[in-house]
Fold this sequence. Notes:
With 396 residues, this protein is an alpha/beta fold. The chain has 13 helices and nine strands. The radius of gyration is 28 Å and the shape is elongated.
Amino acid sequence: MIRVALTVFAWLFFLDGVLSLGHASVLGTSRDVSVLVVLYSIVALLTFLAGLLLYGVCFFTPRMPKRIVVTATIFLLWAACMGFPLFLWTQGNTFFVVSIIQLLMGTAFLIYFHEHGTHWFSVLRNPAENRPKFTWKNFLLFVAANVVILPAFLVLWVVNLGVYSLQDSTAGFIQVRPSGIFIQERLFERDHHEVHLVGMMHMAERKFYDGLLAGLPPKEKSIVLLEGVSDRKHLMKGSDLGMRRLSRLLGIDAQSDSSFTERATAGLEAQKKGGDNDAIQYLRADRDISDFRPQTIACLKEVMALAASATLHELFTRLGNPDSPLTRAEDQKVMMEDILDGRNTFILSKIEESMPGYSHIIVPWGAMHMPYLQQKLLEKGFHEIQRTDHKAMAFF
């Protein structure tokens, strides 16, 4: 029975590798691959379920050959995590690389467990079939191993999900790579107008802020549309959401204290005094807190209170407060509409207003705003002509 189950799993694993490689080869093309996608999805699901089933059997009998079952199942779990951290190196080719690895592994399994002198499609040999049916030693050792393996994969899955979500939600304006976190600057052009979309982080290394705007022609009409919600009515009492405290702990700069903010502030002051009209112009192009709805203001105040927590006990007490506006889904929805959607449309209107008077429009805004702005620029006839990567934070 184990030999039959092993054979079915080994061939499913191999077939899954073949189909995933075929799927990866046509991914993103215009070819009709609906049948292939359906077949691949079915085989991938069956392979994963078979792997988990046989992995569970490994707890109860030494007769299940762990070299193929454990190795293959761990690989499937790793592939389900999109090959993290492999995808930090391979980026868009990860699916293709993982498919090749699986195909090679499946081929090696079939060759290794093939019984010499039999047909290739016959039942595979089981080198562990003469072992006892059950031993406590096997059970306890496998349990002990999984006390380490399963939490490790849970952590890996959570980290992978966070990294993938970050890159996906910013349309790649934030890139996590082995050496650090990179921010993309994308340049769009239409009718002699250029729009620079510069993804920003509230905290980054000093070099990142020092290098912003370095490539702009100094004597051409350029304007920087600055992000930064104002608080003219002092509703938030000047809090910075704890960014200064966190940036000091990480040994990096908060955007509010950066050289970029200093240059922007100096530029705004010079403009008030009637400075050089040929210099880069700056414009505060964001909303005011008073423009937000009461639910948003309440949520932001709660976030600031969390950031200002003096102890972990205070922090967890606030997080567990059932009356917090952050626990109400409707309030969270309103907040996201105000601080993301509403500000997206506002900065887009500022870009359009700036076009008649400026050749270069620079938009150094949070990376979460960039997917919307990029989409709207493309819809308005702009086309992307350049991408530049800036290292915002080094891992080592």
